Amino acid sequence: MTALQERPEQADRHDRGLSETDTERQSYLRAGHSLGSWFFTRDHKRIAILYLFAITAFFMIGGAAAALMRLDLLTSAGDLLTNEGYNRAFTIHGVIMVWFFLIPSIPNTFGNFLVPLMIGARDLAFPRLNLLSWYIFVLAGGFTLFVLIAGGVDTGWTFYTPLSSMFSHGNVVLAAVAVFIAGFSSILTGLNFIVTVHKLRCPGMTWDRLPLFVWAIYATSLILVLATPVLSITLVLIAAERLFGLGIFDPKLGGDPLLYQHLFWFYSHPAVYIMVLPALGVVSELVAAAARKPVFGYKFVAGSSIAIAVIGFFVWGHHMFVAGQSMYASAVFSFLSLAVAVPSGIKVYNWAATLYKGHISLDPPFLYGMTFIGLFVVGGLTGLMLAMLAVDVHVHDTYFVVAHFHYIMVGGTVSAFFGALHYWWPKIVGRTYPLVWGRLAAIFIFLGFNLTFFPQFLLGYLGMPRRYHVYAPEFQMLHVLSSAGASLLGLAYLMPLVYLTWSMRYGAPAGDNPWDATGLEWTTPSPPPKHNFDEIPVVDRPPYDYEIEMEGEDG
Amino acid sequence: MAETRSVAEPYRDARQQRDAAMLGMYVFLGSEIMLFGGLFAVAAVMRLLHPAEVVEASKALHVWIGAVNTAVLLTSSLFVALAVDCAKGGRRRGTGAWLFSAASLGAVFLAIKVYEYSLEHAEGLLPGLGAPLKVSTPVQRAFMDLYLVATGLHALHLLIGILLLLVIAIRAASGRLLLPERAIVPVTAGLYWHLVDVIWVFLYPILYLAR
């Protein structure tokens, strides 16, 4: 794994790679050292790094808000935060984590870095737009933080009317403006990916040779472009109601508060797939690289991404089973929500089939991949329970729902994010990290996560409602367990920060292809040069073209 | 030489770059349709829940002013199409002149719209400005709220379009925009203009002709 020939001083075994290798000197990381060369860059790889910094910061802020909440929930009385303070804490947590970490996490960092490399292009279709999108994102994020911390918003990330439009005391309008601005960043990024995948594939890179990660990013981009504007107009209507009294959602003025929920979830349920589809794409890559086999049913895995994106647009009503919508509408939405599990199931079964009789390596990326699969299955199956009308009426707005979507978003997407980070880190910085620490962090994340969120399934089933910090004393045991798990999880999330940073200087040079994987990104030097490919590659083979080991050959 | 100069970094040739720009604009317009789609959904819900009241509310609007504005906007789209034709033929001054005319018609549309708003304000129909409203039912109030948001958002889009066309008109006429090599710039701007126009073509019957 350590590419000895890459060591700056090949004879010197004590040189841990501190000095620069030749590859590094020509890489995108060294192409310009000034601040301007980073902040005005049009290189998709550098923009990806900019995003990585930004979303790491937001992840920590969102995490800090979660830590406050878990600390407050240790006792059944609300003794750390006031009622208003608790409402604000979960609003910060939700708004920051959803719009400023989960939605941009994998697409804007790894999508930016990898899509051009994977399809054999020199950059995204619109490099300047890409940079603009980062600036919009950072502007919106900074503004959101200011609003959430300075004034505070207590509506939760969903901004439900009439609470948000008529009763809330916080800066709902400013928060809505901030999320509205962030939406532009999403739309521009999605647009950029769609055009790039359509128009910049290298010769021979046909649609049925695209890496599954690119398929997933493409499906995600479709949702970004088509769903985000609906959120924008909804937020405009909220702001119009609060500022000018234009009561589209105010029943007193002839409006309909439920209409808000329809419009909001028309965006926000597909947004769940914005968060999880890229993760599914990452895991497809991790599984193929770990099993060293072609992906089982490639076309079905690729098509299921598109199917999830399409069906995801028609399930929003399952958020409103108890909100008073027509029973017949609920029945249809219930059926459609069950249907979306089919393409998700296809992926899980195909990963299992890919691993079957594979030569599986238990390197950190795959440990994260397995973490994802396990937690995604639990989150998905509980999602099926919630899609059933009768069960949902019982557990609606309880911790059961909270546990369900954290299994998908944190257990799923965040694990996949760390999996991607560990898998492509050698490509991004050109150095390897200590695998032992990678494995330990993956295991701690898995344990910490389950300890945090499994008790919440029980809490919810026993009737603990979400968004309350004063609760019945009999729930305390489970809350303490959950908070203990959260501390472990928080520490585990900080571990990679340490050893990955360490590896940038002290890690051994990685070589072009440390995992011995297929894919055009592994044909470039690590880290890649500014223009990715000296010559645009030509693809003449199917994806995941691993040599299949026959029985007995291995000895 | 001009051909190679107009190809930017990630592209292999001018054709690929042009295709990417077209697709990019189409995707963007798709997102714009979804933006207004939310408002059309609101209008549909309102109409389905309260058909009679919506018809009453719609009758209070100035249908003829809206009709004139529709004609103005459709004519401007014709001018944009002529400008695109000039640009593809490399006729710089024609491109500039037609784009300028289209932008002017856009400004005429906005002027008429402001006049219409002021009439409605005087009649006590326009919410949001603090004046006492003379609406008969809550539904009429909601309808006028929707009317203001929808036409206001459309006017904002038109304003952006006017500025866009003016900038391109000046650049085309002065020769800073290389024509016909960079005809893609007026072509994509024209697509945006046509979409803003088409959105009005839908807004007009939904708001004014629901009678």
Automatic annotation (TrEMBL), chain A:
Disordered: region residues: 1-24
Regions crossing the membrane: 48-69, 89-110, 131-153, 173-195, 215-244, 264-288, 300-321, 327-346, 366-391, 403-424, 436-458, 478-500
InterPro entries, A to Z: Cyt_c_oxase-like_su1_dom, Cyt_c_oxase-like_su1_sf, Cyt_C_Oxase_1, Cyt_c_Oxase_su1_BS
Key word Electron transport present: yes
Family, similarity comment: Belongs to the heme-copper respiratory oxidase family.
Top-rank taxon: Bacteria
Gene Ontology cellular-component annotations: membrane
Protein localization: Membrane
Principal location listed in the UniProt entry: membrane
Keywords for the protein's UniProt record, in alphabetical order: Electron transport, Heme, Iron, Membrane, Metal-binding, Respiratory chain, Transmembrane, Transmembrane helix, Transport
Domain Cytochrome oxidase subunit I profile positions: 38-540
Molecular function in Gene Ontology: cytochrome-c oxidase activity; heme binding
GO BP term, pick one: aerobic respiration
Name used for this protein in its record: Cytochrome c oxidase subunit 1
Mode of membrane association: Multi-pass membrane protein
Automatic annotation (TrEMBL), chain B:
Subcellular location: Cell membrane; Membrane
Keyword DNA-binding attached: no
PROSITE patterns reported in the protein's UniProt record: COX3
Entry superkingdom: Bacteria
Heme-copper oxidase subunit III family profile domain residues: 1-211
Location, primary (coarse class): membrane
Protein name: Cytochrome c oxidase subunit 3
Organism in which the protein naturally occurs: Xaviernesmea oryzae
